[in-house]
Structures
1.
Amino acid sequence: MSVLRERILSTATDLFQTRGINSTGVDTIVAEAGTTKMTLYKYFRTKEELILEVLRKSQSDFQSWLDLKFSTSNQKPTEKIQQLFDFIEEWVSSPSFLGMGFIKASAEFPDEQNPIHQLSSQQSRDFRLYIAKLAADASIQDADGLALQLSLLFEGAVQAEQMKRGSGAIKYAKQAAKILIDGARK
């Protein structure tokens, strides 16, 4: 990936997360990235294409970070499902936390036919499937049901932290997750 394309993508990511997607125009992105519209459109034919790429990269970066955390963990499968919320708490507490792109994008593009909403919805489902796999590996019988419950906790806590940093939402989501996980094991 070219350095300039990466700079545009990084700038757009920061602006979309801090100012909103619809509130951030192409002029602002190119000014902040120190480039031109012609260069932006060389790499991204439309703003929608840029938004989609920002969402893909943000989700990929988060998933890679989470995979790395689990790869260095020595926990048993039955403990990894709870450990997910430890990692999420670490992520939410980090100074670089700006929220989850798919949550913000789905709110700004509520039309289910919109490609941005569709990708956001798919990313939410993919994360729920990731949780379901952790639950299945932990021998949870209703892995899909638990995954839905935990993804609701995750998305709600992330949304609360996006609205007010240090709200404590992730701490309480972690406690609720433990109750749900323990209940699902019975």
2.
Amino acid sequence: MAGWEQALADLVNARGAALKRYAYLLCGNDSDAEDLVQDALVRAFTRPRHDKVANSEQYVRKAVVNLYLDRVRRRDVWRRVMPFALAPDRVEDGSRAADARHDLRAALLELTPQQRACVVLYYHVDLPIPEIAAQLGCGAGTVKRHLHDGRRRLAGLLHDDIGEDDRAVR
């Protein structure tokens, strides 16, 4: 048996489990760890070496790390490209969104004008309560009351549960 073949056999017999544990720590998957070690061994020992490999384990460990990083890079590239390569199984026609917009518009029309103005300025325009009060010419407490009443009314009209968002209005 040639020197490099003996080095490969000795390395696999003596340190094969340690190399697999090393690869497992990198990738976190048992089967991927086995693949990494096997590919690293193939990469390290494919061409017969005329000189004896002094630190074959370190050479294989370096190959394991390089292979792992290459796979991560390839996977990241694929994740960026995949949405363009694969067509979705089912295309949404937007009818649910249109129905929701229609329902919301109808519910907003059920509010009093003051409630509707406060809800739109607060949730759609994203104005703080003092600015809404200044625009409407009323106090901050009045704006809070209109927001509270409008939210409660919308929840009843849209069959929505009143939850944490109701306490967000201060």
3.
Amino acid sequence: MKTHLLLTLSLLFIISNLQSQTTKKFIDSGSVNNQFENLIKNSNKYQDYKVVKLNWLLKLKSNINDSIVASKEEILNATTTINNQKQIIDSLKTSLSTTKNEITTLKTRITTITFLGIDFEKGLFKTIMLSIVGGLVLFLLFFISKFKQSISITKQTKSNLKEVEDEYEEHRKKALEREQKVMRRLQDELNKQKKD
């Protein structure tokens, strides 16, 4: 009976061992770390070694390869995205630089005035133009006053000329009268002398 009992117990142990091996199943979802943990936990022990089913190792290898391929695709996609963003950033930097140059040019145009091909600052240009206009106004006033003065002098001169002409005419008339008187006297004297 002892043998019988030993045989039954052995049989039960083998059946339970087989049953435990057949019910153990490899979990092939989740992270790679979880899959390794599951593999180690569900593997049979033999002395200091773990006995792992070959199909579980192959499945784990396949999962790891899939994870590596997926990671490489993510890295490639991330690299492509980074390169695209670098190109966008470079183009934006170029655009920003161009915009800054345009702003500088516009500020210069706002603060300067180009006259006869020469750039002047607005304040300086206004000062120069006001000085020129002021100078021209002063010259105009000077010439207007000189013109009025010359008109006044011309009128005075014409008036003086008229007076001189009148005096001359009067003097001529008097001189003519005197000459006529003298001529008459002379004639009278000549006539007197002829009669005598």
4.
Amino acid sequence: MSDDSAKSSRVRLARGVSPWLIPTAAAAAATALLTRKDRRWALAAAPLSALTGGMLWFFRDPDRTPGEGRILSPADGVVQSIDPWPDGRTRVAIFMSPLNVHVNRAPLAGNVASVQHVAGGFLPAFNKDSDQNERVVWHFETALGDIEMVQIAGAVARRIVPYVSTGAKVAQAERIGLIRFGSRVDIYLPEGISPAVSVGDKTVAGVTRIDRG
């Protein structure tokens, strides 16, 4: 399912964007006003206005109707890799480009058992060593047992903003956090559950089914 088909008519801005958007929009507005007095200010106003428009697009947060499935994609993007884990789980890694919606959603309903920030580097999210990047590790208590999800910062995305904290109860496809400017999200399928996606498939957060029924 495409991004457009998953959207409703309402699109909001993601929570946690103010530190980036407000200064940029204010600078664009100020230079636009100064352009009326001196057209040379247009050299600054034009790129700042374009940057503001780009940020409004990047930080869009469309409402969505949840898909059907036990485990839904936590992120918009492309399946980068599917790897069997030594403990029997399967890791599905989803790469998010700057063109994707960057609000992440709960893969299934449950309680947030833990939200742990782990310091690390800032390699490009498509790099095989990006596992050691700055990241936030989530554990959900669900009907399928413990489900682990990891938000990984990229070379530009150096801020992960959780929306909920340990102990919170979340619904499937509920918004749970934001990664700014390109990154990756890993979801670990429990032992015995096979992925319904393949490497190269596009996913839509809260809509695309990840597990095979």
